[in-house]
């Protein structure tokens, strides 16, 4: 496929661009393979304008068309929640431009996306991709305990297609047992170490649900694996991010939970967190409420009915529970839901931010995202295919990563001195998860990134963020290192709507 085949009209003169709160801009509109480009007309003072607007077409979530006589108006609703309106002279040109944007924004082939074509002169392709190797993280753990080992059982991705090649597992469990345990877990996601709490030697693991089914199947290797996490007489906690009823229903269709009789040292706690369509619909209602002018009572009613703040409270509460089990109860924890790629990662990542001051630094937070979201197999390509404005029937989309970023913002709001990075970093991550010039959020897991040669063919976002001139933009000027655990409040008066300016859907270049 050639991009030129999708572009029906490449250039239109005298286009008017309108954006909320900004003056109207008149200029020449151009469509390229990956960008919508608007060059503004001369300013009238005899000097030609050199200002240009660039919009990554992948950022477009929905295209709305309206005709007015011989001209037309296109409204672009972007994934980062910006809204642009283009008034285009000539109805045919308007329809062609709209059709071209729709076609280009719908290209689903990973290797045809902009990161595979972006080549900034200041960066090298290999930079940033190996800043946070799991081997380095394991070395930190190995310097404190010998109970864990780094296993390459998944080096060819055959044991688990959504795990990275290397995982951290109990030292007493061999690779053959890991392979058998993987067959007992949905998608092969057997329990692996997520975080080692050096303060008291407790561990947090993550996995997918066990495939016990209605016949209560057992797996000795899975029982052995979890048994090796605990000493004799110790108790661990399994935090299931489903309700007890949902978990029971899953058992009737082949899934299930760890029965007490087979895992006597583990106590199961159910902390239901929404995922999938309910979470996506909550996000859509939130955006609609924020875009609707109404009186205060009506606004508060709409905000409450979307339940977004309730999802934040539930996520933070569950993360606090996991952190409390480890820090105060001195007990190890296993977190899982169904697949172990969504709410599971939300909980394990937040719990580490609460417990570990190193994760609250700019570099440590990037490493956390790399371990607990990217390498851990969160399906970014599926979850971030659309945002809140798409007219398509949404089936796989869910803003789990945005919910995580919102929870991190809540932590920064309650502990303004304890996080080294600023809100600007969270907004930048949100923007790049949905549409980016960098390859770090491409695909759904490490196996797909290997097949698409993402690390060989695209630039890493981490390389750009860590350039000295860029890095300064993301630092919190109020930061003061805090070695303590930070326990967030989940009381209604403590959880706020994130009111920060969401990121730059478009950029002006002189």
UniProtKB/TrEMBL annotation:
One of its GO terms (cellular component) is cytoplasm. It comes from the Eukaryota. Transmembrane segments: none annotated. One of its GO terms (biological process) is negative regulation of autophagy. One of its GO terms (molecular function) is protein phosphatase binding. Gene3D superfamilies: Pleckstrin-homology domain (PH domain)/Phosphotyrosine-binding domain (PTB). Residues 128-502 form the Myotubularin phosphatase domain. PANTHER family: MYOTUBULARIN PHOSPHATASE DOMAIN-CONTAINING PROTEIN, MYOTUBULARIN-RELATED. Belongs to the protein-tyrosine phosphatase family. Non-receptor class myotubularin subfamily. This is Myotubularin phosphatase domain-containing protein. It comes from Amazona collaria.
């Amino acid at each position: 496929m050639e991009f030129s085949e999708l572009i029906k009209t490449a250039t239109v003169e005298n286009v008017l661009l309108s954006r909320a709160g900004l003056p109207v801009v008149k200029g020449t509109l151009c469509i390229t393979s990956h960008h919508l480009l608007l060059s503004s007309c001369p300013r009238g003072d005899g000097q030609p304008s050199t200002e240009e607007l660039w919009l990554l077409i992948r950022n477009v979530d929905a295209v709305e068309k309206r005709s007015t006589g011989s001209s037309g108006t296109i409204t672009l609703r972007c994934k980062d929640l910006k809204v642009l309106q283009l008034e285009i002279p000539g109805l045919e040109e308007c329809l062609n431009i709209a059709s071209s944007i729709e076609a280009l924004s719908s290209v689903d082939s990973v290797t045809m996306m902009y990161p595979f074509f972006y080549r900034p002169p200041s960066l090298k392709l290999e930079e940033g991709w190996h800043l946070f190797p799991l081997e380095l993280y394991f070395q930190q753990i190995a310097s404190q305990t010998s109970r864990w080992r780094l296993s390459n059982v998944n080096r060819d991705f055959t044991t688990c297609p959504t795990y990275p090649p290397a995982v951290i597992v109990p030292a007493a469990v061999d690779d053959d047992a890991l392979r058998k345990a993987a067959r007992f877990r949905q998608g092969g996601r057997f329990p692996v170490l997520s975080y080692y709490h050096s303060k008291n030697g407790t561990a947090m693991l993550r996995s997918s649900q066990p495939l016990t089914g209605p016949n209560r199947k057992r797996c000795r290797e899975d029982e052995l694996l979890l048994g090796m996490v605990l000493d004799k007489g110790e108790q661990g906690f399994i935090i299931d991010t489903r309700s007890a009823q949902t978990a029971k229903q899953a058992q009737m269709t082949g899934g299930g939970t760890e029965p007490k009789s087979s895992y006597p040292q583990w106590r199961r706690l159910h902390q239901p967190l929404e995922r999938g369509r309910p979470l996506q619909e909550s996000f859509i209602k939130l955006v609609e409420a924020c875009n609707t002018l109404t009186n205060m009572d009506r606004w508060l009613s709409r905000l409450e009915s979307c339940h977004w703040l309730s999802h934040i409270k539930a996520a933070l509460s569950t993360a606090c529970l996991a952190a409390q089990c480890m820090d105060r109860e001195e007990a190890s924890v296993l977190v899982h839901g169904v697949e172990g790629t969504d709410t599971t990662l939300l909980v394990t990542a937040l719990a580490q931010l609460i417990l570990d001051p190193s994760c609250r630094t700019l570099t440590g937070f990037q490493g956390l995202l790399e371990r607990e979201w990217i390498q851990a197999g969160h399906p970014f390509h599926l979850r971030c295919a659309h945002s809140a404005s798409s007219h398509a029937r949404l089936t796989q989309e869910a803003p789990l990563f945005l919910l995580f970023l919102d929870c991190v913002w809540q932590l920064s709001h309650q502990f303004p001195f304890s996080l080294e990075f600023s809100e600007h970093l969270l907004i930048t991550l949100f923007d790049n998860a949905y549409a980016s010039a960098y390859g770090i959020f491409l695909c759904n897991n490490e196996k797909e990134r290997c097949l698409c040669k993402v690390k060989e063919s695209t630039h890493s976002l981490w390389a750009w963020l860590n350039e000295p001139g860029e890095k300064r933009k993301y630092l919190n000027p109020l930061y003061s290192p805090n070695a303590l655990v930070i326990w967030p409040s989940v009381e209604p008066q403590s959880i706020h709507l994130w009111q920060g300016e969401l990121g730059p859907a478009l950029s002006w270049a002189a």
